[in-house]
Amino acid sequence: MSQRIGIWGLGESGVGAALLAQRWGYETLLVADKPPSSLHAQRLQEAGLTWHIAEDPTPLLKEADLVVRSPGIRPDTPALHQLIASGVPVVSDLEWGWRHFPKSSQLWLVTGSAGKTTTTTLLAHLIRTAGRRAIACGNIGYSFCLALCEDKPYAYYVVEASSFQLWDTYSLIPNLFVITSLVRNHIDWHGSLEAYAHAKLHILGRLPSETHLIYAADSELLVEKLRLYPTHAQSWRFAVAPSEGIHAWIEGNKLICDMKVGDDADRWEVSYEATPLQELPKRKNALAAAIAGRLAGLRRADLRRSFETMEKMPHRLEQVALIDGVLYVNDSKATTTDAVWYALQSFERPIIWIAGGVDKGNDWGEILDIVRARVRALVLIGTNPEPIYRAFCDTVPVIERAGSMREAVEKAHKLARPDEVVLLSPGCASFDWFSSYEERGNAFREAVSQLKSEKAQSV
What we know:
This protein is of the alpha/beta class and about 450 residues long. The protein has helices at about 10-25, 40-45, 60, 80-85, 95-100, 115-130, 145-150, 165, 185-190, 195-200, 220-225, 280-295, 300-310, 335-345, 370-375, 385-390, 405-415, 435-459; strands at about 5-10, 25-30, 50-55, 65-70, 90, 105-110, 135-140, 155-160, 175-180, 210-215, 235-240, 250, 255-260, 265-270, 320-325, 325-330, 350-355, 375-380, 400, 420-425. Helix 11 (about 220-225) links the parallel strand 10 and strand 11. Helix 6 (about 115-130) crosses helix 12 (about 280-295), helix 6 (about 115-130) crosses helix 13 and helix 12 packs antiparallel against helix 13 (about 300-310). The relative contact order is 0.09.
């Protein structure tokens, strides 16, 4: 008799988990509090799967032998505690995928408070550039489980992993684990900084000596927390500036990677010239990719070619328009103070900063110095801008509030002077006004486009 697998939630991860369960011959029970999107419904219907909509999923899911929860199910959800108390095991989609992972493949896992998506994309692109089969999946937008449903296994699965997915993984062991940064984040979801850090780092304790840990050695909170999570994995470190024990760093306009892998000692120097990696955050993420490439036995030419052919990522320091000498930049993907710090650091010119949204327990004091140095005016968005206002009311000389993205762009335009930057870098989640950071970034693009059109018509 086959096991009955409960799938709790019908978003991208839930649909992937359901299709993976079906592929392996399990009986499936799909439950959610709202119907799936039309695309996800079509996928499920084509597979012959049906689903239940229920405000309280507990009675149905108690009939399952194991439940795969959506990343959106919080640790403090009462129904989750009821299921666990009733003896039903509950795991994340990452754990479910790992239990069906092809033994011949490599799993590269990428997490961190900022830089996950860029690093995941870079790593997968680097591997493909070297002629090996790789896919970027997970929190990046294409389900890990769905990738595992494809007919031909990939040689490398490069998986972006959020803390929402990692906290209840119990056996997952990546071949290579990258941690891009750690700052105070998602405290509203996890309940404390310690719980957030534990979600990210607890898997370190089960990594064996043949695995690799790559991490940002200049992320102070990360280094502090890593002391609490000893590991047998081989450790490799990157940082913006060189120091003792650093294996990759930035020197002028070059990436330097100097490390010994087995009997192979080599120093790579790769220029950032003529590549999309012009902003500091992307250049730093590339350091992790260089170390991973060395560990995978790739060549310096592979790294260089991957840099040259890498496409710019939307919503991450994306230059949208130049209007009256003012540069408009979409950094909607910046949902943490760490990401905002890098964005502000990327421009020497004065900045009109658009920020706000759903505050996830940020410590805005972490970026007080860079805001004081770079920001001339601040336009607040979102339903609760008070935490940001309180943090910078004595630092930024001009602070205004907007009731829409359109109004925010208009106010920023009136404040900006030639040779300045209007930067959308919210530092917050988007779920008060928008359904995603992509929708927020698109709203910014549209508002800037309308502004540019109006300016052209008035000439």
